[in-house]
Design goal:
The structure holds two protein chains of two kinds.
Chain A: E1 5-14, E2 21-31, E3 36-40, H1 47-54, E4 62-67, E5 70-71, H2 80-87, E6 88-91, H3 103-113, H4 118-131, H5 147-159, E7 165-169, H6 177-194, E8 197-201, E9 213-218, E10 221-227
Parallel strand pairs in A: 3-8, 3-9, 6-7, 7-8
Antiparallel strand pairs in A: 1-2, 1-4, 4-5, 9-10
Helix pairs in contact in A: 3-4, 3-5, 4-5, 5-6
Chain B: H1 3-10, H2 12-50, E1 54-57, E2 71-72, H3 75-80, E3 85-99, H4 106-119, E4 133-141, E5 154-155, E6 164-168, E7 178-181, E8 184-192, E9 203-207, H5 208-216, H6 220-234, H7 242-256, E10 261-262, E11 264-269, H8 275-286, E12 289-292, H9 293-304, H10 306-337, H11 339-347, H12 352-381, H13 393-419
Parallel strand pairs in B: 4-9, 6-8
Antiparallel strand pairs in B: 1-11, 1-12, 2-10, 3-4, 3-11, 5-8, 6-9, 7-8
Classes of the chains: A alpha/beta, B alpha+beta.
Chain lengths: ~240, ~425
């Protein structure tokens, strides 16, 4: 089975000599399509570094990254911007919607980036707004949306180009428990129904019950990779750190 | 999806208020351009209105508008007889004044108070008493020759043989109004529009003979004094040649009373005749100075108005530079406000060129909108300026090109800042 994302012996080192810091120490990870994975760990464990590498904004010192069957660092120089807009969706802690675009425009924008015709983009945005139950907020600017609504629009934006993987960076950290759970259930729904692999970096242990797997990172190494009890039958043979 | 327009739409107040600021600055740039053109047009108005090919003046003098060239009136007959000359018109022109204070306006009061505040410790007290005189350029011409008013906008042209004048509307005189010059009353029978001297003083046209009387008629007390002095100087000759002394005294006195002087002769040449040939003929045989109309305008512009034009041009350049700096600063501030959004855009995979073009487009939008608004405001304000201000649509077109270049250059600092934005900024925070 082709994984949505796979890493092999991923190493990230900052500095040299006495100031050298090993942020990631040979991470092997694979995430299936339709799988919702939580990456947890204390501050300095390497979560953000891993997120940056998976998001193609930082190149690892060593190792392989295979995104949707494409070995990213093998071969010639790649257009990471293009890969990001075509293959990856992002969800952030504070949603980070573009403030001067309406909810609908925030969703059509990624499609505009890959040249999707206007009519098709609008139809897709309408479908996503409906799917995420924020149709009535389509014409509103982000400042007029509640925290939960913003995150739903952010999920819709992440889904716009039907990416192989969605990276969610603390998507519930700025929300109360109910809204946080609601967002996690929405991510759960997306991964299950749309088959999108979703990696959620979170500190929030309340959300663990909503994910398929929990990956624990400590000091740049995976210390545990557990399938959650409620998870709908996801394979547990992904870890070999 | 045009991000620049979307951002402007969202920050509409900020964008419009910034654009208004830029447009006010550009209004001043346009106005200075209009003033420069006004000075140029004012310098050429009378020359153009006269429709002469050549201007003949006293040898070694620059011309009737900037120096007091004087030559005998009958010279124009000699010029008229030169081969190739179609028409020679004797003209009298000099600055004069009458007691006719212009209507006081708020602007004038402001100017006076402002000048008083700025210079009261530097010049004589009371120098700034309100103006009491109407200054004008008096042009005397033969009604059957060139040199008269080109177009009458109210009333009629001069028809009577004496004591009628045509004045420019800027004098504030009305048709039918009587003005007193050198002890005689003259009736304003017609009005012209925008006929002014190079310093923007309005022109009053009179018949040649009236203008000669006004400008060259000495004061009676002065005349008596001259006669007495001439008599005293010739007093010694009476014993030697008593019969010659009296005619000599009369002749000497009459020289100072000679009114048959003119300041210039406007010449039109026959079609197909070389201006240079006619000019050199006049210079060689009549010992007079000859200028083409273009040279005559140039003498006024580059002589009397050269420094003010240079000053205005420099000021205009400074304002353009300031406009560029301000557009740059506004664009930079707009960009700083969007640093996080730019990081998100980069993370979403937005093409770099698209982010930079958003910044440049916003600067352009502000600059071009500001230019159009500034031009419109300038056009609307033109009639309210005390002297001629003339900006054109061509100026606006030219300014749009200049502002396009300035806006692009000004936005480069903001683009450079955007280039430094790291998309990682948005992750892990």
């Amino acid at each position: 089975m082709m994984h949505a994302i796979e890493t092999k012996k991923l190493v990230m080192t900052y500095g040299q000599g006495r100031t050298k810091v090993e942020a990631l120490k040979g991470i092997d990870l694979s995430v299936n399509k339709g799988e919702l994975l939580a990456i947890m760990g204390p501050s300095g464990s390497g979560k953000t570094t891993l997120l940056m590498i998976l998001g193609l904004v930082t190149e690892p010192t060593a190792g392989e990254l295979i995104l949707d069957g494409d070995n990213i660092y093998k071969g010639g120089k790649r257009d990471f911007q293009r890969l990001r807009r075509e293959k990856i969706g992002f969800i952030f802690q504070f949603s980070n919607l573009i403030p001067f675009l309406t909810a609908e425009e925030n969703i059509t924008f990624p499609m505009d980036l890959i040249g999707t015709p206007g009519g098709k983009a609008h139809a897709r945005a309408a479908e996503l707004l409906d799917y995420l139950e924020v149709t009535d907020r389509a014409g509103q600017f982000p400042e007029k949306l509640s925290g939960g609504e913003k995150q739903r629009v952010a999920i819709a934006r992440a889904l716009a180009n039907n990416p192989a993987m969605i990276l969610a960076d603390e998507p519930t950290a700025s929300l109360d428990t109910d809204r946080g759970l609601s967002v996690m259930r929405m991510l759960r729904k997306v991964s299950t129904e749309r088959g999108t692999a979703i990696l959620v970096v979170t500190h929030d242990e309340r959300m663990i019950g909503e994910v398929d797997r929990v990956l624990q990172l400590v000091d740049g190494a995976v210390t545990s990779d557990e399938i959650q009890a409620k998870a709908p039958g996801v394979a547990g043979d992904h870890l070999s750190a | 999806m045009n991000l620049a327009l979307k951002d402007a739409r969202y920050h509409v107040f900020k964008f419009i208020s910034s654009t208004i600021g830029v447009s006010l600055l550009l209004l001043v740039v346009f106005t200075i351009g209009g003033i420069i053109r006004g000075v140029i047009l004012d310098s050429s108005t009378v020359v153009v209105a006269t429709n002469a090919d050549l201007w003949v003046v006293q040898k070694d003098w620059l011309g009737p508008f900037v120096e007091a060239s004087r030559l005998p009136e009958d010279y124009y007959h000699a010029i008229q007889s030169i081969h190739g000359v179609a028409e020679a018109s004797p003209l009298v022109m000099a600055w004069d004044h009458i007691d006719h204070p212009p209507a006081s306006s708020g602007l004038m009061m402001f100017m006076y108070r402002n000048a008083q505040f700025g210079t009261q410790t530097m010049v004589e007290p009371h120098w700034l008493d309100m103006v009491r005189e109407l200054r004008f350029l008096l042009v005397g011409y033969e009604t059957d020759h060139i040199g008269g008013p080109p177009m009458i906008v109210a009333g009629r042209g001069i028809e009577a043989s004496h004591y009628e004048v045509v004045a420019d509307v800027k004098t504030g005189l009305k048709v039918g109004e009587i003005i007193r010059m050198r002890g005689f009353d003259y009736k304003v029978v017609g009005l012209t529009k925008n006929i002014v001297g190079f310093n923007a003083d309005p022109v009053i046209y009179a018949r040649l003979v009236d203008a000669q009387n006004i400008l060259f008629q000495p004061d009676p007390d002065l005349l008596r004094n001259i006669r007495r002095r001439t008599g005293a100087q010739l007093g010694g000759a009476e014993a030697v040649a008593p019969r010659l002394t009296e005619p000599a005294m009369r002749k000497a006195s009459s020289l100072s009373e000679n009114l048959h002087m003119i300041n210039a002769i406007a010449v039109r040449v026959e079609p197909g005749t070389s201006l240079e040939e006619v000019a050199s003929e006049i210079r060689h045989w009549k010992h007079l100075e000859v200028y083409t109309s273009a040279r005559q305008i140039n003498i006024q512009l580059m002589g009397a108005n050269r420094l003010i034009l240079m000053q205005l041009s420099l000021f205009r350049l400074l304002l353009l530079i300031i406009a560029g700096v301000i557009i740059g600063l506004i664009t930079y501030t707009f960009t700083l406000d969007k640093i996080k959004d730019i990081a998100v855009l980069k993370l979403l995979g937005t093409q770099t060129s698209r982010i930079y073009s958003m910044i440049i487009q916003q600067a352009l939008l502000m600059g071009l909108l500001g230019t159009v608004m500034g031009a419109m405001m300038e056009f609307a304000a033109e009639p309210y300026f005390p002297r001629r201000v003339t900006a054109t649509l061509g100026d606006m077109g030219q300014m749009l090109v200049i502002i396009t270049i300035i806006s692009i250059l000004a936005s480069l600092v903001a683009v450079r800042r955007a280039m430094q934005v790291d998309p990682r900024l948005i992750l892990g925070t």
